[in-house]
């Protein structure tokens, strides 16, 4: 087994905050009861919203598809976490730093927790004989996303491997963020299932080895997995899997940092890890892949750590997606008097929420309720309740702590000067927002908050530029169209005028020489000829019948009358055709536009 | 002496001819600086700068006819960008032209009140309103620039200005409060 791990590398930078993991690991994972109402956001993943497949008032069963993947861009399916009735599809508050709301499906639970029968295919222990494409479909259909926090659709990530040869599958069990213990507990209690999930991943990726990276402050989890490894002998890839105990150092749990520690390969920002021979999945993701493939259960629940000195009994829950935070906190004994901050995620990378009326989503690994001073995480006694922000003294500590070799102090100055071009030149987009720089800053500058601001501001500016280009294009077309319409109108008017003049000229010519029928109009001439022919025929008929032959002068006159009538008819038809083709709208619009032009 | 003068005159004639040819051969249509200025303007086409659209305003700035501070939708950031481009002083926004709104807005048509007169359609500079005579009109919100030019012509006042709804993917994280505003200063009492 040890031959699989030749050596551990050192990651750059990093910090040692106090980890506070023990608080929430005293008791085993509890299954949280079903709350009366579940709120399931449509977008719980990176990418586009999923497409709604239910209607308000519909009765749904546990595991039933609520929203399907969107074929255009990466997205994940969403399933009903329990049985009940869809009472609304509306905007609800989301667990997001912005405090904005988004489309959610609200389910009134019936407490029966009845599974959708169509899902309950016979337990599929025989996944080894299932084709890879089918396995991928199963993972996609189960709505699995990366449960480490990024929530990227797993099927998309697995499919993106393509033809690349995977040397190492990295299973991320580092869980470096303070307070969070959901992966730790999962590995302790469900190691066998995780290993089966890993076996499925190994089969999919055909990787040479799999390393499960766990920080060495979780000896129980390491032990549990090692025991499971020695017991599970029927797994195909058992010889290729090894547990790697990595030094405790924040943020070793970031996928790129863990890859560096375990394989020595540094993955550049714009390169996908498969092209460098590795791919990283979270332990919880491996567990839900096991559930999807072997138990045919879609991702409807996850382990959530509810912890901090603001809750009475910190512990881990297996909570249904959509469970309100307030409900879970109540399950953990409710708030204590020290509760001052509500954070989703850990104290380093998490974000504060203004209300507990938000649902657990697929990315919710931790609900942290804490007093302000406990969030500072330093070991030395913090007497002041809030550390005062002081000016940057250019000590460079942030630079040493940064795991991705950035210069936080430079980026800080440029962000404050709003010189976003310079910030981008300093590779702001590489920042993983781990917060190590803010943690070490002796002036307590919230550096990472500046970088989050700069990132979103740059994105907003880019979007605004795109919109401006679009508006410019539309305005240019609008102007072009107005000019074109005007020209067309003038052209038409000119033609009408000419026609009128021609008619007048013709009329005057006709009045001048009445004997010669006007032959300028071809059609008229033809009609006149036809009329003449008819008249002749009639005359012949009359001759045959023995009636008196009409005098030639009269015939001529008759011809003239007929020709004139035919002309009038043709004109009438032409007028009718014209009014038919021109829409009343444009006529009216033109009239109005002329009016407004006159007004100007 | 004569030779030197002839050489100099010859060179002058040669280079003069070269420059003259180049100015004809590589003639630039329009003023490229106008394009650059136009790139920085927000393209709302609202006409608040007193010019009929962003391009005419850019043209006027390029000709030096008007200040860079007449674009209320662009606000301070546009003035800053224009000042950088043209290497001129940053001046505060000319409030006569209108106020800069921090929140972007768009318009919506109250559809039950709309009588279908098409006047707003003609007023819209970016063709963001759809509808036909005597039929209900509506605004394509994603195309609306918030110029509000459709408001005055509406005979039944059925157009409302609403703040553009923020989405999570367009949200901007708040800027942290500047560290330097928080320097603790101890003031010693004068004896």
From TrEMBL, chain A:
Q: Where is the composition biased (Basic and acidic residues)?
A: 474-509
Q: SUPFAM superfamilies recorded for this chain?
A: alpha-helical ferredoxin, Nqo1 FMN-binding domain-like, Single hybrid motif
Q: How does it sit in the membrane?
A: Peripheral membrane protein
User: Per the annotation, how and in what number is the cofactor bound?
Assistant: Binds 2 [4Fe-4S] clusters per subunit.
Q: Which GO terms describe its biological process?
A: electron transport chain
One Pfam family from the UniProt entry?
Complex1_51K
Per UniProt, which keywords does this protein have?
4Fe-4S, Cell inner membrane, Cell membrane, Electron transport, Iron, Iron-sulfur, Membrane, Metal-binding, Repeat, Translocase, Transport
- Where do transmembrane segments lie in this chain? none
Residues annotated as binding [4Fe-4S] cluster 2 are: 402, 431, 434, 437
Q: Does the keyword S-adenosyl-L-methionine apply?
A: no
> Needs which cofactor?
[4Fe-4S] cluster
Superkingdom, natural source = Bacteria
Residues annotated as domain 4Fe-4S ferredoxin-type? 385-412, 422-451
The record's section on NCBIfam families has:
PRK05035.1, rnfC
Functional description taken from the UniProt entry: Part of a membrane-bound complex that couples electron transfer with translocation of ions across the membrane.
Q: What is this protein called?
A: Ion-translocating oxidoreductase complex subunit C
Task: Please report the organism this UniProt entry assigns to the protein.
Answer: Leucothrix arctica
Q: Source taxonomy lineage?
A: Bacteria, Pseudomonadati, Pseudomonadota, Gammaproteobacteria, Thiotrichales
TrEMBL record, chain B:
Q: GO annotations under biological process? A: electron transport chain
A single Pfam family, by name? Answer: FeS
* Annotated compartments: Cell inner membrane
Q: What is its EC number?
A: 7.-.-.-
Q: Which residues form a coiled coil?
A: none
Show the GO MF annotations. Answer: 4 iron, 4 sulfur cluster binding; electron transfer activity; metal ion binding
Identify the cofactor(s).
Answer: [4Fe-4S] cluster
Which segments constitute the 4Fe-4S domain? Answer: 29-88
Q: How is the cofactor bound?
A: Binds 3 [4Fe-4S] clusters.
- Annotated region (Hydrophobic), positions in chain: 1-23
Predominantly, its location class is membrane
Q: Which residues bind [4Fe-4S] cluster 2?
A: 114, 117, 120, 154
Keywords in alphabetical order:
4Fe-4S, Cell inner membrane, Cell membrane, Electron transport, Iron, Iron-sulfur, Membrane, Metal-binding, Repeat, Translocase, Transport
Binding residues for [4Fe-4S] cluster 3:
124, 144, 147, 150
Q: Name the InterPro entries on file.
A: 4Fe-4S_dom (IPR007202), 4Fe4S_Fe-S-bd (IPR017896), 4Fe4S_Fe_S_CS (IPR017900), Elect_transpt_cplx_RnfB/RsxB (IPR010207), RnfB/RsxB_Proteobac (IPR016463), RnfB_subfamily (IPR050294)
Q: Which SUPFAM superfamilies match?
A: 4Fe-4S ferredoxins
Q: Which residues bind [4Fe-4S] cluster 1?
A: 46, 49, 54, 71
Q: Where is the 4Fe-4S ferredoxin-type domain?
A: 105-134, 135-164
As for what it does, the entry says: Part of a membrane-bound complex that couples electron transfer with translocation of ions across the membrane.
> Could you say which protein family the record assigns here?
Belongs to the 4Fe4S bacterial-type ferredoxin family. RnfB subfamily.
The name this protein carries in UniProt is Ion-translocating oxidoreductase complex subunit B
Record organism: Leucothrix arctica
Instruction: Give the taxonomic lineage as stored in the record.
Output: Bacteria, Pseudomonadati, Pseudomonadota, Gammaproteobacteria, Thiotrichales
Gene label = rnfB
């Amino acid at each position: 087994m040890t031959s699989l791990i030749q050596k551990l590398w050192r990651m750059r930078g990093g910090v040692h905050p106090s980890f506070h993991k023990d608080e929430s690991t005293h008791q085993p994972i509890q299954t949280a009861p079903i709350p009366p109402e579940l709120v399931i956001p449509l977008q719980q993943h990176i990418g586009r919203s999923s497409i709604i497949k239910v209607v308000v008032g519909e009765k749904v069963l546990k595991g039933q598809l609520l929203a399907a993947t969107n074929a255009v861009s990466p997205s994940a399916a969403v399933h009903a976490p329990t049985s009940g009735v869809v009472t609304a599809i509306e905007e609800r508050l989301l667990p997001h730093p912005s405090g904005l709301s988004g489309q959610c499906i609200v389910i009134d639970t019936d407490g029966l927790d009845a599974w959708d029968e169509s899902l309950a295919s016979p337990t599929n222990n025989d996944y080894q004989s299932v084709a890879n494409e089918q396995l991928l479909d199963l993972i996609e259909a189960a709505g699995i996303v990366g449960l480490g926090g990024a929530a990227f659709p797993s099927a998309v990530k697995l499919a993106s491997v393509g033809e690349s040869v995977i040397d190492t599958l990295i299973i991320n069990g580092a869980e470096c963020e303070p307070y969070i213990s959901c992966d730790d507990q999962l590995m302790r209690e469900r190691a066998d299932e995780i290993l089966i999930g890993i076996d499925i991943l190994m089969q999919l990726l055909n990787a040479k080895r799999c390393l499960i990276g766990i920080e060495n402050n979780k000896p129980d989890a390491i032990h549990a997995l090692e025991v499971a490894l020695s017991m599970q002998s029927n797994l195909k890839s058992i010889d290729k899997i090894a547990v790697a105990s990595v030094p405790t150092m924040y943020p070793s749990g970031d996928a790129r940092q863990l890859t560096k520690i375990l394989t020595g390969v540094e993955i550049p920002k714009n390169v996908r890890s498969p092209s460098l021979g590795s791919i990283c999945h979270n332990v919880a993701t491996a567990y839900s892949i096991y559930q999807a493939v072997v138990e045919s259960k879609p991702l409807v629940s996850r382990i959530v750590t509810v912890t901090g000195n603001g809750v009475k009994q910190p512990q881990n829950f297996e909570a249904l997606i959509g469970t309100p935070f307030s409900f879970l906190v109540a399950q953990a004994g409710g708030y204590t008097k020290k509760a001052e901050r509500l954070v989703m995620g850990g104290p380093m990378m998490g974000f504060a929420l203004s209300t507990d009326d938000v649902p657990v989503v697929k990315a919710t690994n931790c609900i942290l309720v804490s007093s302000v001073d406990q969030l500072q995480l330093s070991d030395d006694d913090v007497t002041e309740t809030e550390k005062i922000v002081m000016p940057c003294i250019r000590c460079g500590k942030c630079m040493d702590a940064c795991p991705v070799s950035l210069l936080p102090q430079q980026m800080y100055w440029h962000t404050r000067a709003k010189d976003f071009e310079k910030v981008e030149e300093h590779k702001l987009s590489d920042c993983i927002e781990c917060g190590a720089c803010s943690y070490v800053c002796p002036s307590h500058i919230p550096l990472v908050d500046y970088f989050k601001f700069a990132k979103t501001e740059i994105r907003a500016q880019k979007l605004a530029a795109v919109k401006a280009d679009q508006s410019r294009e539309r305005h240019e077309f609008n102007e072009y169209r107005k000019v074109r319409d005007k020209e067309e109108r003038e052209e038409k008017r000119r033609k009408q005028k000419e026609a009128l003049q021609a008619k007048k000229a013709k009329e005057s010519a006709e009045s001048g020489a009445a004997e010669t029928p006007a032959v300028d109009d071809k059609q008229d001439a033809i009609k006149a000829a036809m009329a003449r022919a008819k008249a002749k025929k009639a005359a012949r008929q009359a001759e045959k019948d023995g009636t008196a032959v009409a005098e030639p002068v009269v015939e001529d006159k008759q011809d003239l009358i007929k020709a004139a009538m035919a002309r009038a008819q043709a004109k009438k038809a032409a007028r009718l055709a014209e009014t038919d083709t021109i829409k009343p709208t444009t006529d009216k619009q033109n009239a109005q536009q002329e009016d407004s032009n006159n007004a100007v | 002496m004569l030779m030197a003068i002839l050489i100099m005159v010859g060179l002058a004639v040669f280079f003069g001819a070269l420059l003259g040819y180049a100015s004809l051969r590589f003639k630039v249509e329009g003023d490229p600086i106008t394009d650059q200025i136009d790139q920085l303007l927000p393209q709302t086409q609202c006409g608040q700068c007193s010019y009929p659209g962003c391009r005419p305003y850019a043209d006027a700035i390029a000709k030096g006819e008007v200040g860079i501070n007449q674009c209320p939708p662009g606000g301070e950031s546009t003035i800053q960008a224009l000042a950088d481009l043209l290497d001129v002083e940053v001046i505060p926004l000319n409030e006569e032209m209108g106020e800069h709104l921090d929140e972007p807005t768009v318009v919506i048509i109250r559809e039950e009140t709309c009588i279908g007169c098409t006047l707003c359609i003609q007023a819209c500079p970016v063709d963001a309103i759809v509808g036909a005579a005597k039929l209900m009109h509506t605004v394509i919100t994603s195309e609306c620039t918030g110029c509000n030019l459709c408001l005055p012509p509406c005979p039944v006042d059925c157009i409302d200005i609403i703040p553009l709804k923020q989405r999570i993917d367009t949200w901007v994280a708040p800027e942290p409060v500047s560290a330097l505003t928080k320097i603790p200063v101890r003031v010693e009492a004068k004896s």
